[in-house]
Amino acid sequence: MSGALARRSLDGLSVGDALGRCSSLTADWEELRATRRVPAAPWHWTDDTAMAEVIVRELELRGSIDVDALAIAFADRFAREPQRGYGAVAYHVLTRIHEGVPWRQIASSVFSGQGSLGNGGAMRSAPIGGFFREDVERVVREAEASALPTHVHPDGRAGAIAAAVAAYAASNALPILPTVLEHTPPGDTRAGLERALGLADVSPLEAARALGTGIHVRSDDTVPFALWCASRHAGDFEASLWACLDGLETPDADRDTLLAIVGGVAALAPRAVIPPAWLGAREPLGGRVHPND
Q: Which helix (H) or strand (E) holds 154?
């Protein structure tokens, strides 16, 4: 187990999350992409980072994911800072858990009893791949467990597995998409990953059009493109994040979640460097929400 790698993944995830959020608030984001000039500090992060930080702390405390404890920790963290940008379904689920409703009851009740197939499980799971970097089967089990308090739908869980396995692959210098496909269960997310594997020679914009950019906030239209970016530029943290931004042509893209997934995976490649200036621009972890959010 490696808490240090989990923390490194969390740094990459939070930088990506915060950069994605900043870019979504920047009126001249086309110029940002063209010039490769990042927004001015500070960069405030969202619920993606808040929930990933909870996972890392739980792993450091317990050495594994206890789903009951994780659900309570998620709800407590949400109650401290509900303004972090939680989606409507997550807001509802975490509010009810904080009120004492068992997570199994509330998480299974949404979307007519199907559970959520959103990208929320994937946005926070990359550090698990670093923590258990020596045991991919453990990565799969723990990632699936980490999704359950909010995403019981099989595809929501598949997204969490895919992002965590991608981080595992990056930390071990393995090919990302082939490794992820070996361990992601069947479903729409896996189908998207299969399409991503066949897009080796296209531009980020073409890949994004083929795979989705999180507009529907589902695992299947978010995870494939995020992991395509991390795989395309394995070992280069900055290039991975810029590739993701280069693919986003509409303001509806889920930029913070896409970049959170990319950053959490890309940070674990052996040669990857998170720019110190980007880390310095990112709001400190564990902080209170910015009063203007």
A: helix 154-171
Q: Which residue has the tokens 């509900």?
A: 82
CA 6 to each of CA 132, 165, 194: distance values in angstroms, whole numbers, following the listed order? 9, 13, 27
| DSSP secondary structure letters along 213-279 | -STT-BSTTTHHHHHHHHHHTTT-HHHHHHHHHHT--STTS-HHHHHHHHHHHHTTSTT----HHHH
Longest dimension (CA), the chain: 50
Distance from C-alpha of 161 to C-alpha of 230, rounded to nearest angstrom: 15
Q: In angstroms, rounded to a whole number, what is the distance separating the alpha carbons of residues 75 and 54?
A: 10
In terms of C-beta density within 10 A (0-12 exposed, 13-18 middle, 19 or more buried), how is residue 141 classed? middle
**CB contact set of 190 (below 8 Å; sequence gap of 6+):** 158, 162, 181, 184
Q: Which helix (H) or strand (E) holds 93?
A: helix 88-98
pLDDT digits (tens, 9 = 90+) for 65-108: 999 999 999 999 999 999 999 999 999 999 999 999 999 999 99
- The domains located in the chain, with CATH, are 3-281 (1.10.4080.10)
Q: For tokens 């590739």, what's the residue?
A: 243
Instruction: Summarize pLDDT for 175-210 with one digit per residue, the tens.
Output: 999 999 999 999 999 999 999 999 988 999 999 999
Distance, in Å, from the CA atom of 143 to the CA atom of 141, rounded to the nearest integer, reads 6
Token pair 């296209």 in the structure block, residue: 202
Question: Whose structure tokens read 């729409």?
Answer: 188
